[in-house]
Amino acid sequence: MNIYGVSFDRVGKVHKFLSEEEFKRGEMVIAESEFGIELGEIVKVFKDDAQEEKPEKSILRKATFDDMDVQTQNEKDAKVALKISKEKVLEHDLPMKMLRAKYILDRSKLVFFFSADGRVDFRALVKELATVFKTRIELRQIGIRDAAKIIGGIGLCGMQTCCSRFERDFKSITLKYAKAQQLMINPSKISGACGRLLCCLAFENDNYLEILKDIPDVGDKIEYEDVQYVVSELNIFHKTLKARNAEGKMIVLPFDEVIRLLKKDDENKKNKEEEECDSNS
Asked: Is the pTM of this model over 0.85?
């Protein structure tokens, strides 16, 4: 059995499926999503690893040209459905914003994705939409980051937002990322269009952590030429450390020199412990 990653939406979440057939990336298949039978794209081929967690569902079959034609028509009709749903939301005066509509392949269900600040009683709306479209209706409330993914836009970098361009899964982003990269903790500078911390803060975080590995943090004490200093600033771009002693004297040391000093200090402590151990014995 082979394991494949299938996405049912453009830059959508990757779902794992089993299949005895051989597929390549980019091929279209038919599989069962959380909404029903859908057309999806093979976006990842997982290695044959015994430790790889086996998914419960299997790919049903390879997509045909007829499936592609149906999908194209469904997407066109979904755009019309979205426009109508927005009009109905206004008629019902509901505090919600319709963002996207989606037919599953056999049109047995029409799913609407919307955003709202809180819970919304949309029971009357669902009944009316079911009457209009003659199919089962599902309304799915999504979070602010998912909403931004659907809407799209331009980021602070001047390029299309990462979430709508290639980022399939949202990572947990915290202020630790910004601090490690020595960015100003200014919400307007480190937040995306969704109002949350920028997804791109995670892209190079591992590199920053590797550079700062074994480097003392601000506030830590180091010893240089038999004088104790307190680290006051780290410059990750120049790879230098600033520290001050009790008299206010400041020194600037390259990271390589800091690591050498720390290793020397560890060796001295180790030798001292060995000498004390020998004298006690």
From this structure: no
